[in-house]
Design goal:
This protein is 67% helix and 0% strand. The chain is built from two helices and no strands. It starts with a helix and ends in a 19-residue tail after the last helix.
């Protein structure tokens, strides 16, 4: 464990319990967000070849440059 990590942990131990809980919640949220990003990148890499070769997956992109008018 690095000195920086040890210092951070010591600082956290010195916080009031409510602030310690907040630090834990924020850290867990950050880890979950990073995990979600990794999963999305992995999935995109896995599907890239399919999107390059399967015209059914990209058929609606032909309409990307057309004007879209929503009926009212």
């Amino acid at each position: 464990m690095s000195k920086k990590t040890t210092d951070i942990l010591k600082e956290i131990e010195d916080l009031p319990i409510q602030d310690r809980i907040l630090v834990i919640e924020k850290a867990l949220k950050s880890l979950k967000k990073e995990g979600n990003k990794r999963e999305l990148r992995r999935a995109a890499r896995e599907l890239l070849e399919d999107y390059k070769t399967d015209k059914d997956l990209t058929s609606f992109t032909d309409l990307d440059m057309e004007n879209f008018y929503e009926p009212r």
